[in-house]
């Protein structure tokens, strides 16, 4: 579907607040907010509560701006894929021009305000994150290479680094490790989604791994990345953001995650479609909890450390 045909869709009803809010991808924004907050609170520097609140708010706005610009550019793809046809632009609720204007305005606002509220480095890092997600991933990698989600996953991995930068004004090995945790989690998370979404990406012409290399190769990649992810996640337990609470959570979650990846890997195309769909969807559901629980454990370590309960 061409951009022109999308733009000429008749808006069947006036857009409401919920339609404009949906442009900001609130579910993705929730992960951005949570991981950024953990990065901020895990940093070894106290931040004034008002500065912390304002910073997280502006990081959330920046994440929403990225979502709006992604929907603006990907409106043609969203109109084809069943999973995304209900989004505001293909549904005829919001125009592409409105989405672009909202995305650009919020991008500038969030970066400038974060720089003023916290520090210039944090504002610049947020600006780079938005640029990376919109230009490097959405406009370039997503439609060009099956490695799109591998490289592009960096965009979703920056928020804890931004939170850490709000507190410290820079980066450290701990913030890099939090980045790496999210970065390594992203490919198996999205590849599992691709497997049970079947032909959505193929119909939209997006070169996801299962489209270009096949489902067998995708399962192999999920297993490899899950094993690498487990090593990173468990290894973080012995750093400045880890501790016994985090180690316990990481051991349990990564044991389950590796078992799920092996289950998907062992499946072949002779396995019944219903059984395969169940395995892939279960793994995807676990991946949704995986990141929240790991960051929750980091937050628990940081919160309890002053009372002698967290950390080593």
TrEMBL record:
Q: Name one GO molecular function term.
A: protoheme IX farnesyltransferase activity
Give yes or no: UniProt keyword Repeat.
no
List this protein's GO terms for biological process. Answer: heme O biosynthetic process
Q: Return the EC number.
A: 2.5.1.141
Q: Name one Pfam family in it.
A: UbiA
| This protein's UniProt keywords | Cell membrane, Heme biosynthesis, Membrane, Transferase, Transmembrane, Transmembrane helix
Can you tell which superkingdom this protein's organism belongs to? Bacteria
Q: Which family does it belong to?
A: Belongs to the UbiA prenyltransferase family. Protoheme IX farnesyltransferase subfamily.
Tell me the route in metabolism or biology where this protein functions.
Porphyrin-containing compound metabolism; heme O biosynthesis; heme O from protoheme: step 1/1
Q: Which organism is it from?
A: Shimia thalassica
Q: What does this protein do?
A: Converts heme B (protoheme IX) to heme O by substitution of the vinyl group on carbon 2 of heme B porphyrin ring with a hydroxyethyl farnesyl side group.
Q: Which NCBIfam families does the record associate with it?
A: cyoE_ctaB, PRK04375.1-2
- Which positions, given as ranges, span the membrane? 28-45, 51-73, 124-141, 148-167, 173-196, 222-239, 245-265, 286-309
- Fill in the subunit field for this protein: Interacts with CtaA.
More info: Carbon 2 of the heme B porphyrin ring is defined according to the Fischer nomenclature.
| Segment forming the signal sequence | none
**How does it sit in the bilayer?**
Multi-pass membrane protein
Stated name of the protein: Protoheme IX farnesyltransferase
Which GO CC annotations does the UniProt entry carry? plasma membrane
Is-annotated flag, keyword Transmembrane helix? yes
Major site of localization recorded for this protein: membrane
Q: Which reaction does it catalyse?
A: heme b + (2E,6E)-farnesyl diphosphate + H2O = Fe(II)-heme o + diphosphate
- Subcellular location as annotated: Cell membrane
